[in-house]
Amino acid sequence: MKSSNFSLNRRHLLQASLSAGVGSFLFSGSARAEEKMKKGQRPTGIVFMVSDGMSQGVLPMAEAFSQQIRQKGTAWWQLLSHPTAAHGLMDTPSFNSLVTDSAAASSAWSSGQRVPNGQICVDAKGANLEPIGLTLSKEKARLGLVTTSRVTHATPAGFATNSPSRDDEDFIAPQFLDRAEILLGGGTRHFKAGDRKDGRDLFADYEKAGYQVVGSRDELFRAGRGKLLGTFWDSHLPYSLDRNQSAALQKQVPTLAEMTSVALRRFLSGRAPFLLQVEGARVDHAAHGNDIGGLLHDQLAFDDAVAKVLEMVSDRDDILVVVTSDHGNANPALNGTGARYTQTNQHFEHVAKLKASHEELLARWKKKEGGVKDWQKLVENTCGFQPTQAESEAVLDSISGREVIEWSHQLNNPAGLLGQMVGNHTGTGWTGVSHTADPTQLSALGAGSEQFSGLIRNDSVRDRILGLLLG
């Protein structure tokens, strides 16, 4: 028996060294906690982590990209080989479509029912369903929502609010008051009196209700104990790729890992059961934009949050960490290139040369515009390659609304053509610019992880979480 344990530890140490430390807490601290943990043990806290819109092909690409630019692996990839982690697939349809949107997906997790796309915890007949945040608040349990989207966006909103339309974010914003103790992300415009249609000063309302309101990275780190509302950007937080290129953005906007650390530290120091949702939202946005650089940098930012959570709970035997996605999006993949695919690695290495998201690239073009030569120069300075005349003309024609010959309706748009242009130089490809029906990856580690193995319907998550937290 001792020999077996020694062999296992050696293997874990080898895996940890290969990933430059990522695996050390996965295979040591958590293993120590699990020695005390019995199967079926109930957690006192659950961290539910969502890489929004992450298709199956993203995980291996993110692992390869991390090894390439950071010389270390990713936490989620390491988690896949953890000896006691549970793994499965999430079945993702909504009430009215094989392909869900984020509103219906989060609502299914939260309410226990599949709802039509576009609705937040409102069923097909228009009746409000009880979101999980309201259930928890009735039981004196705590809810936290951390995201790189607007905090009023579909995924965080689904855990705490009701709305016939996901787009009515002014209506959604005040509903968190008695349902979520921590709110961190973007979306200042839905709380600021001057930006709201009704002129209501929600920041003042939250302060009156006992929340600390913060608006910058420094303010977040200085925040004291108690309820917390932090919005760090007017809309969604900037893409990680763009943040990494800007000292000003780095000073203003915290990373997902930093926001998660602040939230989790508050919950771990308390006694009440808690549920913390953490969303890497811009993975989904980058997939809609066929933006491989934006997607992979935000996936790594999400993975950094996973690593931070696993590190923080590594010596706890009462915390469950669930990592998944709500749906696929555009199914990005690395394609084999060159004779016998020998140019694949070389092409993929070019992703590291991309210095701006497609959102930022197009914003710069809008300020400048011009002809093909101007576009080629901008792309070369931003992306590290010069697009061909044909590539440039196709993208510019699509941006201008002119007809472009592209047989795929999914790709016959600026995002699709821009993704193809970049894909010609990175070896990456996309099936379209919309969500997909494929099931998503699901991993769980900690007390109650066995509840998240196998094929799981998205509308079964609520009962699993409440059964574990509240019994």
Describe this structure in words.
The protein has 471 residues and is an alpha/beta fold. It has two domains: 2-331 and 438-469, Alkaline Phosphatase, subunit A; 354-429, no CATH class. It is 43% helix and 14% strand. It is built from 21 helices and 14 strands. The chain has helices spanning 2-18, 22-36, 58-70, 75-79, 102-111, 132-138, 154-158, 169-172, 202-208, 217-222, 240-244, 247-252, 256-268, 282-288, 292-312, 344-348, 358-368, 372-383, 389-399, 414-426, 461-469, and strands at residues 45-51, 86-91, 142-150, 182-186, 212-214, 228-231, 274-280, 319-324, 328-329, 333-334, 428-429, 435-436, 440-446, 454-457. Strands 5-6-4-3-7-1-8-13-2-14 form a ten-stranded mixed β-sheet, sandwiched between helices. It has a two-stranded antiparallel ribbon with strand order 9-12. Helix 3 (58-70) packs across helix 15 (292-312) and helix 13 (256-268) packs parallel to helix 15. The longest helix is centred in the middle third of the chain and has 21 residues, at 292-312. InterPro entries: Alkaline_phosphatase (IPR001952), Alkaline_phosphatase_core_sf (IPR017850), TAT_signal (IPR006311).
Keyword list:
alpha/beta; two-stranded antiparallel sheet; 43% helix; 471 residues; Alkaline Phosphatase, subunit A; disordered N terminus; 10-stranded mixed sheet; 21 helices; 2 domains
